[in-house]
Amino acid sequence: METRRVVVVSGGMGTPSSSRMLADQLGEAARRQLERVDIHTDITTIELRELAVDIANNMVTGFAPPALADALKSVADADALIVVSPVFSGSYSGLLKSFFDVLDNTALDSMPVLIAATGGSVRHSLMLDHAMRPLFTYLRARVVSTGVYAGPEDWGTGSDGAPALDQRVTRAAGELAGMIAGTTTARRPNSAQASLPFEQLLAQVQGR
Prior knowledge:
- The protein is an alpha/beta fold.
- The chain has a single domain (2-206), classed as 3-Layer(aba) Sandwich (Rossmann fold).
- It is 44% helix and 18% strand.
- Helix 2 packs across helix 4 (94-102).
């Protein structure tokens, strides 16, 4: 059975945190979906609130303390990412943005990413497409089509009797699993080929 590494990043501030609860649901749903195609999942969860001071220090010094360095390496080495943020002032949290600001800006190239958010009103659900999706598109990640938003109204029952939130979690996790299953072990470009001059790369394309 293949093993893929999925890193779950939770930007929740409190304990307990609704963002962490949603993150755990998404991670478990992704694991179940991948098991259906005989892929074992190694899940690592990163709580950004535990790294807040390290992130701030990294931003002003350029140096990542050991705990933050380990978290950044886990993200860079992952096969897929699940990112959950609370909604603050109509956008994702500053802590989450700061974490991805100190991450190498090539680390997410072609990486499957599932985005999710929690908030106090369903009106904030647009944050996923207006704020989070553009962030990960800029970082050249492959963002799954279904984003998952959980507000107070989203813990009810859906049309088929399952909780409405569970339906969206399952759908998004299925899309992420599909991306992961279709991703080769060499997710990033071959380093030797990527380092070739543009003229040589163009000549290879024209010669096909």
